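SAMPLE LOG
Freezer: B-3
Tube label: C17
Construct: single chain, 175 aa
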Amino acid sequence: MRKFLAAAFFLLLLQSVAFAAGPSKVGIFDPEEVLRTSEPGQDAIKQFEAKMKPDSERIEKQQKDFLKMQEDFQKQAFALAPEARQDKERELRRKEFELSEAVRMFQNAANREKSIKLNEIFKVLNDAVTDYSGKNGYSLVMAKTQGIIYYFDPSTDITKAVTVELNKAWKSRKK
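STRUCTURE (predicted):
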């Protein structure tokens, strides 16, 4: 009980010191929108799509081939001998497994590539937000994240300013 009271008193004291220091300036930005609308984000999307397009097209072709193979089997199933039907079913299962493995490998490669691109941008974004916050007197800047921040005053939204800062920082970064 004493520990609880001591912790509550400490938090109350900390809060009163924060209020005594004066009003604090708070900013909120949407990192997803910043990535979507910023120059580095748009470049990353284009590079990602260009790099993943051949694999994506290959997977789509495999999926179409598999669906055609399934349709052909369904049309022929009743006319086939039991052994031939079992062979076709085995081949369908094997093709389905190969397709699911190809999709899994594609998704892993896509996630890896996306992560590499985003990490590079987030490093610059973090520095850009820190610089912007310091220059403009913000004592707290938070990222608007679905499920964490439900409401904020639109006047505290600095998404566009952060996007501009990210674009500047991206151009001036050391490559």
